[in-house]
Amino acid sequence: QKEVEQNSGPLSVPEGAIASLNCTYSDRGSQSFFWYRQYSGKSPELIMFIYSNGDKEDGRFTAQLNKASQYVSLLIRDSQPSDSATYLCAVNINNNDMRFGAGTRLTVKP
Amino acid sequence: EAQVTQNPRYLITVTGKKLTVTCSQNMNHEYMSWYRQDPGLGLRQIYYSMNVEVTDKGDVPEGYKVSRKEKRNFPLILESPSPNQTSLYFCASSWGAAGELFFGEGSRLTVL
Q: Distance (Å) from the C-alpha of residue B14 to the closest C-alpha of chain A?
């Protein structure tokens, strides 16, 4: 079992819809969770981080964490074509290193 | 401007010819790390460093070396590159292992 798993997609949503991206992780001791966005040919950039169970909102983005289910998600409301990218889930393992999922490719169609 | 700088950005080399990819950050970060990114596999950690003179292996360290003699620099060394090391490489830095990672622009390496 991979330490961090994501559906590779592609996930396609129409402009204005909610995009839901999911991630599961295997290490129950993980404490910090991150979502990075990576445009084609570019480096990853941080969108959200979350440490506590529940929801964390930042503009059109909401990160959701459920440690009991070992599940973290990212919701993008009012999706825009500029949101089309690959979204990487990252989980801090043992406070020593960051493990990444393979990424979910999102396409927002005008 | 806060940044992580990698060089070279693009490199084509041949099997066995030693090469070094440099990485430098200007944010005074203690933590630095190297990743390789391959289609369908996401970012896999090669080596990381918690501080000067402290380095440790990540998931895929075979065929790579690193050093951390200064806080700002963390070069990645391929002593004898092989075609399976053809990949996109990212250097990243952070205040700590649990913090936001700041990535360099990436170095695309092709080994023939």
A: 24
> For A68-83, what is each residue's pLDDT tens digit?
999 999 999 999 999 9
| Span A15-66, pLDDT tens digits | 999 999 999 999 888 889 999 999 998 999 999 999 999 999 999 999 999 9
C-alpha A89, offset from chain centre: 4
A residues 29-88 lying closer than 8 A (beta carbon) to B: 31-32, 34, 36, 42-46, 49, 88
The distance in angstroms from the start CA to the end CA of chain A is 37
Tally: H helices and E strands in chain B: 0, 11
Distances from the Cα of B25 to the Cαs of A20, A27, A58, A69, B60, in angstroms? Answer: 34, 30, 28, 37, 23
Both structure tokens of B107: 């170095």
